[in-house]
Amino acid sequence: MALLRKFEISTVYNDIYDITDSIKETVSKSGVQEEICRLIPTRIDFHHQHDSPQDAAGHVKSALLGIERMFIIHKGKLLVGGSQGIYFLEFDGPRNREYYVKVIGDV
C-alpha cells in the first residue's frame, strides 16, 4: 500500500509553517498501521544561475537540516509526542512551495 499526496503553501523569508495536521491526515487516509512515513519537500524549478547571499545561506541551512524526514506510524497514527510537530522552514522565500507526503506500508 502506498499513498502520495501533494500540498502547496505560500511562504515568506525566514518563517516556519506547521504541516503536522496534513501529515497526520495523510497517514490516517493511507490505512497503514505500522510503518515509516517519509516527508519529502521538493522544488523542481530550481536553477543556480542567480544565487544571492540569502539564497546561498538557505542552501547551507537546508543542507544542515536535510530535505526529507522519516516518521514512525504506530497503530495507524503518526508517532509524535503531544508537544511535537512537523514544520516546514522557509529559508529563501517568499515562494509558492510544494511538499509531498508519502506513506508506504502493508495494510
Number of domains: 1
**Can you write the helix and strand succession as a string?**
EEHEHEEEE
Shape, principal axes of CA atoms: elongated
Number of strands: 7
Going by CATH, the homologous superfamily would be YjbQ-like
Spatial ordering of strands, largest sheet: 1-7-3-4-5
DSSP strand (E) fraction? 35-45%
Could you tell me the radius of gyration in angstroms? Answer: 15 Å
Helix content: 10-25%
The average pLDDT is: 76
Pfam families: YjbQ
Protein name: Secondary thiamine-phosphate synthase enzyme
Organism: Lactonifactor longoviformis DSM 17459
Furnish the topology, listing elements before pairings:
Layout: E1 2-11, E2 15-18, H1 20-30, E3 34-42, H2 53-65, E4 69-74, E5 77-78, E6 87-90, E7 95-104
Describe this structure in words.
This protein has 107 residues and is an alpha+beta fold. The chain has one domain (2-104): Jelly Rolls (Sandwich), CATH 2.60.120. The chain contains 2 helices and 7 strands; from the N terminus they run E-E-H-E-H-E-E-E-E. The chain has helices at residues 20-30, 53-65, and strands at 2-11, 15-18, 34-42, 69-74, 77-78, 87-90, 95-104. Strands 1-7-3-4-5 form a 5-stranded antiparallel beta sheet, with helices on one face. A two-stranded antiparallel sheet has the order 2-6. It is elongated and about 40 Å long. Residues 39-44 have low confidence and may be disordered. InterPro entries: UPF0047_YjbQ-like, YjbQ-like_sf.
